[in-house]
Automatic annotation (TrEMBL):
Name by which UniProt lists this protein: Protein kinase domain-containing protein
Alphabetized InterPro entries for the sequence: Kinase-like_dom_sf (IPR011009), MAP_kinase_kinase_kinase (IPR050538), Prot_kinase_dom (IPR000719)
Organism of origin: Sphagnurus paluster
PROSITE patterns the record matches: PROTEIN_KINASE_DOM
Annotated SUPFAM superfamilies: Protein kinase-like (PK-like)
Keyword Iron: no
Length: 138
């Protein structure tokens, strides 16, 4: 269940992923296609919501990482709504970029091709700042 709440960042800048409750082994004998709808809807890939047809595999984690990066960049979740059903409908009907029309400082940074600012009370090492600049510069 890869989501912002499960990414722990130490003061030194080291990131750790937590909560592997629904993770699967990569050498799973079932062939890697799963059909149970598990996870948190705000970071859930369309394949998970549409499980009855083909199922899904580990590629859904790429979707979740994208949602986490967008949340970091924009400062808000990529899907609007407080109710799971509303969010699931938005994800299920996703056919292209989302939230790009929102007038938000995170998207202004995106359009200007700039990384998010570092808070005044945070000191990044040269290596961490280089990583930040390379990740968010396009």
């Amino acid at each position: 269940d890869l989501k912002a709440d499960n990414i722990l960042v130490e003061m030194s800048g080291i990131c750790k992923i937590s909560d592997f409750g629904i993770s699967k082994r990569t050498d799973d004998p079932s062939g890697g296609a799963f059909t149970a709808m598990q996870g948190t809807v705000f970071w859930m890939a369309p394949e998970v919501i549409k499980t009855r047809k083909e199922g899904y595999n580990s590629k859904i984690d790429i979707w979740s990482v994208g949602c986490v990066v967008l949340e970091m960049w924009a400062g808000m979740r990529p899907w609007m709504g407080n109710e799971a059903v509303a969010v699931m409908f938005q994800v299920h009907s996703c056919s292209g970029p989302f939230l790009l029309g929102v007038n938000h400082s995170g998207f202004q940074l995106y359009q200007a091709k700039k990384p998010p600012p570092v808070p005044d009370d945070v000191v990044l090492s040269e290596l961490a700042n280089d990583f930040r600049l390379k990740c968010f510069a396009m």
